UniProtKB/TrEMBL annotation:
Protein name per the record: HNH nuclease domain-containing protein
Species per Swiss-Prot/TrEMBL record: Sparassis crispa
Superkingdom of this protein's organism: Eukaryota
HNH nuclease domain location: 153-256
InterPro entries: HNH_nuc
Pfam families: HNH_2 (PF13391)
Amino acid sequence: MPGEPLPPNKYSGLEEDAYNTCLYLERLLDWSEEISDEVRTSKRTPQLCGRLLGYMMLEAPTPEGRLNVAKEIQTCASASDTQDRLAGITQFYDHHFIRFFKAAKDATPAVSTPPSRPSIDMTAEEKNQLLEEAPQDHRAAKLLCLVRDNYRCVVTGRYDAATAISRYLEDKTFIAPAPIVPTELAHIIAESTNANIQGGGTKRSYAASAWAVLDRFGKVNVVDNELNGQGIHRLPNVLTMSVDVHIYFDTLQIWFEEIGTDRYRLCAHWDSVLTALGVDLNNPVIQLTTTNASLPLPDSRLLRLHATCAKVAHLSGAGEYIDATLRDMEELKVLASDGGSAHVLLDALLHSGGQVTVH
């Protein structure tokens, strides 16, 4: 799971020093004999750690975010237990940034089902009520998102099947304006992030740490942007997507690269993914639009963070490492008698909410 080699250092000052630290890690063949058992058991190689931290700097969505990562790296580098600290900060970003987008998504998101009356036919009073209040649950967010996105997948342009069926049942002359597909409500920041965090505990601690990373790295404040609690369903954090698009988005196989105001280039690690979705490889451009000025479009900062995560996960090799660990967790019934699966248990415990101190 090597990822791509880091390019030459292009920075100056503290950032140059921090990136050189990443290059140093990348060149190491193995950890020193003094490294802690926890780091060695995790099976994260120095190369993986160096590349993850290096690409966090290279792909940072904001200059402030890059500088904050550089400061963390150099604080670790100046400690007596340098390698342990660097492995620790890598593990922190792995669990609280990469996995925040990649592994925290709901495994079985709810597919849109035919409502008793199509949302396109909601009364003016019902629409106004939804518009005046932020969506408080998945269903309300799905309805508003469908209205905003004109009942279409934002990537393929295909029409929501549930709405088409409901319209046809009421009017047998109705013809959908585009091929129909089941659609889902896709969250940029995972819907599960704010679930079951009341009253403290490891889940709340994990969420708090992950939100802190988004604030320091991407200037997204959970309180200021009203994404706390049920605010996770607010329209700036959701999109309408067909099932296949949603899967690729959640697994970081596709991302939106900003090229203008609410205008994005759809990117993927492999062209075959875009081809499978029917995207024109010569013009993979998506212009997000809203049917109502009161229905805000997805926040470009959140899409930028998702794009950063997708690129860092792929380029560093961390995505493959996480995929392998998750596969092991699914298949693991009992620990290997020789301790060979200890890294899987360790990762599971850490991702369930265990904290890593960042110095």
